[in-house]
Amino acid sequence: MVASFAERGFWLDGALKCALGAAAAAAVSIAASQILLGLALACMLAARLRWRLPQGWPLLAFFFFWTLAALALSDAPAAGLPQLKKFYAWLSLFAVLSTVSRADHARWLAWGWLAGGALSALWGCGQFAVKYIAAQRAGTDFYTAYIGARITGFNSHWMTFSGQMMIAMMAGAALALWACRDTRLRRAAWACLVLMGVALVLAMTRGVWIGAFAGALYLLWHWRRRAAAALPLVAVLVLWLGPAAVRERALSIVRPRGVTDSNLHRIYTWRTGVEIVKRHPWFGLGPERIGAHFRANIPADLPPEPPPGYYAHLHNIYLQWAAERGLPAALAAVLFFIWQLAASRRRARQQPELAWVHRGAAAVLIAVLVTGLFEYNLGDSEVLAMTLGWTALSDGLGRQAA
User: Fold this and answer.
1) Are 319 and 273 in contact (CB under 8 A)?
2) What is the pTM of this model?
3) What is the Cα 49 distance to its own chain's centre?
């Protein structure tokens, strides 16, 4: 009996470490993250650990089953199988939720993201310097050359990299603002945050800028409201004092440079997405079928030839889910995240000693949901795993002494 208890403890400890490791690794490597997630699930089975269900789980179950229905009704079900594989990344929610039990676990993940994010940001800043010098030597316009090939850190795409930086900054800032009592640790946290902030600015992903601003505003409002009021001024100073390309990128929101900036491309994807939802409101076109049917659904008042850009998805999580899987699935997924957002804010009031964890979760969700207006960010397994990881921490710890 003693041996069996010891053996179960071994598997439980392994499940916890692998679950948190999977969430932490998502900031630098999706391969490492998914390997660790698999090990966490195996340890959970070996320990016969009872899986916890997140708050709002019926909405999540509805989203999954409606996705299966949309896949079955698709004109090419086999093409949508990658979205079934994506369900694996969602298991990180259950792995973290079922294993965490102490505030220290949140600290481990926050520091993992701070360290990994800072290293990735440092690499990204180096990439920016190399790209800038190369453009200068070639005598080419840096802005034009850079927008289509921006910094990626340890990742393969600047959108994923920016999303990772944003989420790590939200959790890391919550730690630095409320949970770092040691001066040296606080300074280390802020150093990592500044480095990630610089990389995020240099990545020039406008939607993530807006999402990060919204999440940071929430955190500062609950820390010191004067700091929240000063945030817009700080943002303006960063843009003003930063490289000229950064200022031009910010101005491109209202004054784009032709098709170099993606404004017209976004108009095409968003309006076509609305058209698809109008024509297929219940089950959509099916997972992974946007690209195949995009041109056939371009609104009649737009030129039939879209500008250069990526059209396999709609660059908006809300339109993407609705156009692929139908309005019911999209509504269920959105309501699940809103439920968790509202719950994290409530937990912050109920558990002052863990308020930093819950405020960090709210900031992460606000930043991700705002960015989702401009990009299909939760389609990235890295961004999804990080979002679910901190959401699960808040949910799990919110049940301790509640």
Assistant:
1) yes
2) 0.97
3) 28
